[in-house]
Amino acid sequence: MLELFRAEAEGQAQVLTQGLLLLERDHTNAAELEACMRAAHSLKGAARIVGLDAGVDVAHAMEDCFVAAQEGRLRLARAHIDLMLRGLDLLLHIGSEESALAGEDAEVSRFLIDLAAVLASPTDVGPDLVPTPSPSVGPDLVPTPLSPVGPDLVRTLSPSVAPDLVPTVSPPVGPDLVRTLSPSSLDAPSRPPDREPGERALRVTAENLNRLLGLAGESLVESRWLKPFAQSLLRMKRQSQQCGQAIERLRELLPPALLDEAAANLLHEVQQRVLDGSQLLQQRLLELEAFDARSTNLANRLYGEALASRMRPFADGIQGWPRMLRDVAHTLEKKVRLVILGHATQVDREILEQLDAPIGHLLRNALDHGIESPAQRLAAGKPAEGTITLEARHSAGVLQISVVDDGRGIDLDQLRATIVARRLTNAELAQRMSDAEVLEFLFLPGFSMKGEVTAISGRGVGLDAVQDMLKQVRGSVRLHTQLGHGTRFTLQLPLTLSVVRTLLAQIGGEPYAFPLAYILHTLKLPRTRIQLLEGRQHFELEGRSIGLVRAQQVLGGADVSMSDDWLPVIVLGDEGLSYGLVVERFLGERELVVQSLDPRLGKIKDIAAGALMEDGAPVLIVDVEDLIRSVEKLVVGGRLDSVREAASLGPALTRKRVLVIDDSLTVREVERKLLQQGGFEVEVAVDGVDGWNALRAAHFDLVVTDIDMPRMDGIALVLAIRKDAALASLPVMIVSYKDREEDRRRGLDAGADYYLTKGSFHDETLLQAVVDLIGEAT
Description:
The chain is of the alpha/beta class.
């Protein structure tokens, strides 16, 4: 019964939250008052059935408040809305298991007293009626509103927390600072449409849905096996017809003296049997083709329905964000309008559930860092009310979600100064970095441009969490900013995690699958269009220069000679960085059911997952981002093979090889350039696991590694190197931001040969340390 009450409370909480936010904008909205009153009435009845007396009291008091507003005895203002939202949080808490066991008498009593005071007042109630959190309570105890989704996400408040700590309230402000969320700012009705009459809801676990979609995807793949089988039967039919024609020619060629009556009868019987077999085969082939059409159609419909059951409209995941933004705006004393576009955009439910925290970070970031105060906006010639736009749409086979604000934008000069102040690089290098490279620092763990920590931001745990989530679902994030005009974050995610549309290509005699979402272009490139620039091959495509790379050099496999004058090329990457991958031939487009590789294999270089072809043959799905990093390593090391002269790779390089391992793009590039200027051949790795894989795959003379890295830190990497018999003698240098003696001792005790701090090294220091360890570059 409690589970039923929680489910109903979540649904009614959505109605109440939407209604209260709209009533704060327009307190005379009769439709919203009626909807909120009915929602409170329903919650009162549900609580009474379950036996939650505290819930009955809270819901009844809220219902009285809505009735008073309907009758004109009460004019809802911001203080009333804050108090009603506090009651809604209390109702959700009452429905939780902990609350149901412990009771909520004190909290309910305080809420009822405050609400009674509101109803007793004939005029608007000021903000002083709404309690503010005690200074002794940390900001983590001030709850933020949550979207009414699954029961496992119902927010629970500790019974020891007094109810006056429930709402997040700003200091008293004037009416001109009250947040406005206009219904016109939404591209869909503010209230979701009612369920169709007769439609029933059934609670199904996510695991069951995943299995159902997996089986539906497999059936879709299996259904395609019939077409090649039908084509093989068609070849048999042609062979049968050719056999009958051969028998007829044999009859004509045999002399009459050899063709007696018995032989003629036997030959005629064979010819007739071949003809009967051909006709039977033709009949069965027609039946098989009809069955193939029905089976494929049924499998497609089954997969479509299973996928639809997994997909949810974007609107289902945005219920908590308007209230969250409202509370934060009040706390910061800012005015903001939230514009939400793409309510009906379909999103994979797993992706939608994981989007809650990242988008919440981006919205708070836009409001706290981007949107200025009303006075600052007016002084800059902007309207006092800022605008944050949240949009979800499908584009080129991927889901794109953008968070855009019209605030102050990011001051790149200030960002460079912050980077230097935090000793992440020196001033000279910071000035030489491009804007895109500088913006990458915002995604570093613990990085923040704020000098002090507040309850809203300042700890530097926002943007790195966004990037980590996107990596988990094979997505990416792009950041664009313009000083004084605002900032745009664009998240690019797959439509679903279970099935991927791919282009199959043959490389080294084996098929590989490239997700279409990462392919910019495919073409047959004439060899005459290949140009040479600074020793690297490229071609022109739509006004851009695209570098050429042989796929076999990256993914391996047999070196197949390509004598054709036209080269099949897949252009991968994005608008900023792209490469043309030369393959042997295109094998067509396929929808593949993603099969995870055995976790015991670890992260396989350049490979994301596996799948099965129609005939059951396995195929590897390429990790395009990892592949591009591998190509960059070849470019940086000057080891790209010529497409024209693939067979003659030339003599091996005699320069000493250094592996640089660091999760910071900027640090990697600085160290790589310094070492290359010193004559060394350099390969880079993005973290400890990537570096460990590189060490086992190739020979290096020196390893330069950071300490703090994801997946495997530098200390663990050094210990692994010293335990490996083949690598135990390999020199290792640690370059870290940590400059304390205990950090230095910890690295040397693990087995490192040299310890250098990033904040102090410069050209001569790093190069001299490398020479001391392994000698000159050649």
